[in-house]
Design brief:
Helix content is about 20%, strand content about 25%. By secondary structure, it is an alpha+beta fold.
């Protein structure tokens, strides 16, 4: 049985005790980690209202190249901090760009799938079929590599 994180104090206390992270880390967050984001808004008279907080965990693997290109790795994020660092072991198929896996409702036969830019998996033989990582995990995925060969005839 794993232990669940326990928070004491107020959300303001959680924010103060959370780890500052860079803009790139805030844009593309680590699987398994918990993040706290501070949301503020202005009142009708222009003053800042009391801060609200959201707690979240990412649902897809980070794209570090995208984050570094968009935000650079320098600079501390002002509105997002890491609340809990819980490294998650990432299966090899989640890191692959192509896998072979079953098709929902079609039995144990394996078919090639590719990862879309949005993080979902698309069946190569029928682009209308796409699934998220949680659904893909149920389809028995295995990393795949396409190797091009030349006929030596």
């Amino acid at each position: 049985m794993t232990t669940q994180p326990t928070f004491t104090g107020t959300p303001d206390d959680w924010w103060e005790n959370a780890e500052p992270i860079t803009h790139a880390e805030a844009q593309e967050r680590n699987m398994g980690d918990w993040y706290i984001a501070r949301v503020t808004s202005r009142t009708w008279d222009g003053s800042e209202s009391r801060a609200r907080y959201t707690i979240s965990t990412p649902s897809k693997l980070p794209n570090r190249e995208k984050a570094d290109a968009a935000y650079g790795s320098q600079g501390i994020a002002e509105r997002v901090r890491r609340l809990i660092h819980m490294p998650e072991e990432v299966p090899a198929w989640k890191l692959a760009e192509m896998v072979t896996a079953e098709v929902p409702g079609k039995g144990p036969e394996r078919h090639p799938w590719m990862r879309n830019a949005n993080g979902r998996w698309r069946l190569l033989s029928d682009a209308r079929i796409n699934v998220n990582d949680a659904s893909m995990a149920e389809l028995n995925p295995r990393p795949a590599v396409v190797v091009e060969t030349q006929d030596l005839v």
